[in-house]
Amino acid sequence: MAAVSATCIRFGTSVELPVRANNQIIGKSSSLVSFGWGKTGGFPCIRTSRLQICAAKPETVEKVSDIVRKQLALSPETQLTPQTKFTELGADSLDTVEIVMGLEEEFDISVEEENSENITTIQEAADLIDKLVDKKA
Amino acid sequence: MQAPFRLSGMRRGVSKMKLHCFERTFFHSSSSLTPIQLPSPMETHLWYVKPSEVKSGSLLNQYLDILPPCERENVLQMRGEELRKSALLARALVRTTIARYQINSHSNPRSLKFRKNLHGKPEVQWQFRDDQHPPPLHFNISHTTSLVACGVTTNAQIGIDVEEKHRSIKHNILSFARRYFSKHEVQFLAAISDPQVQRMEFIKLWTLKEAYVKALGKGFSGAPFKTFTIRFKGVMEGGFNTLEDLSPKASEIVVDSFDDLADLTSNWQFSLLELANSHYAAICTEKHGAGSDEGKRNAPGKLTVWKTVPFLEDECVSGTAAVKIICGVQ
């Protein structure tokens, strides 16, 4: 796990933080590219076995990203990856619930409460959607 | 190495409320916290900080400094300055607040360890000798980019939620309520004709439901929003009162659950406040003596609220315009 030392962080009035990952500055706050702090970076499927048909379709990931962008009113420069956590983007519980509702409307599915707790990233949302859509078919 | 303190930040200054508060204390210090006693069993403490009032780069670095590496990482992963700042203040607030109570000589915010319970609710991992009992302090935090709050109780589970008063949602309120709220709550909202009032009542209801679920500590799926109703005692059948119509002393917020036995839901008490003229705050705490009939008839508990900038100043704002009690406590 990359260690962050206080000496490399500066808080001025604009609170600009150089972001370090693995001891390399990879970008400033405004143009953040994806960095995995110890997370597996595989796309599209990050958690389950390769043998399972669980990889979300790219179109699904795309649609989920659009819904997230709209809900959280993200600026176009904000880069999203499948591993991006909603909380990192500033989503609180009300936002997350609205995102789930938006996904239900877009894909005509119904997400149970137990499942909505597991939707914390774009990838997780897309995986669940494809699973539910396949079940319907 | 600390950032040079920028003068442009100083000019705007930290606005202090010039209000007469009997218990007001200002404590100026570069790096110490006013110690305080745990709330009594019937009492709740609420501490809050407004990110817009924390402008000092060196102070923010002090906050970063008390966090362990994993918490610092989480803060830095947030996208954008505003989000990073409120995430940082949330961790700093919870650590400095708990440190004030100096439990088992834990007075250093840096040394506190946290863990999550089975369902993901954060709690303190106390370091204590085998012959000691775990301390009775309970806490819960909630934050928006514009306000961060931490509630503390003794021997009682607590859940809090804060929302901006003017928060709006992307969906139609009744569509949202039909999807997530209980039938009675939908009826309550549907009966409100003014859309602004309806939106405000929706936000208040949301914060109350969130506070309840967080107090239970079972996670969103442990108590799905549809399975319980939060309502105001004193509402007439077939009519409705908005919370503004109800006098705080005359009414009470109660929860009815479809799953639980009736006496389990009477274990919880609610308070709803307007904080700093900008936010609604809902607090849900376990009632004491809940097993006995006498316990259930307890008067509403006492609430003490502090506005704080950790390490810099604390101001007791109970009884001032910063805290407007809508329903619940004294």
UniProtKB/TrEMBL annotation, chain A:
| Species name | Rehmannia glutinosa
Could you tell me which InterPro entries the record lists for this protein? Answer: ACP, ACP-like_sf, ACP_chloroplastic, PP-bd_ACP, Ppantetheine_attach_site
Keyword Nuclease appears in the UniProt entry? no
Sum up the protein's function in the record's words. Carrier of the growing fatty acid chain in fatty acid biosynthesis.
Keyword terms, alphabetized = Chloroplast, Fatty acid biosynthesis, Fatty acid metabolism, Lipid biosynthesis, Lipid metabolism, Phosphopantetheine, Phosphoprotein, Plastid, Transit peptide
Protein family according to the UniProt entry: Belongs to the acyl carrier protein (ACP) family.
NCBIfam families, from UniProt? acyl_carrier, PRK00982.1-2
| Keyword Lipid biosynthesis carried by entry | yes
Q: Which named protein is this?
A: Acyl carrier protein
Q: Any idea where this protein resides?
A: Plastid, Chloroplast
| Main subcellular localisation | plastid
**Carrier domain spans which residues?**
58-133
UniProtKB/TrEMBL annotation, chain B:
Keyword annotations for this protein? Transferase
Q: Which residues form the 4'-phosphopantetheinyl transferase N-terminal domain?
A: 61-149
User: EC number(s)?
Assistant: 2.7.8.7
Residues in 4'-phosphopantetheinyl transferase domain copies: 157-235
Protein name according to UniProt: holo-[acyl-carrier-protein] synthase
Taxonomy-wise, where does this protein's organism fall, top ranks first?
A: Eukaryota, Viridiplantae, Streptophyta, Embryophyta, Tracheophyta
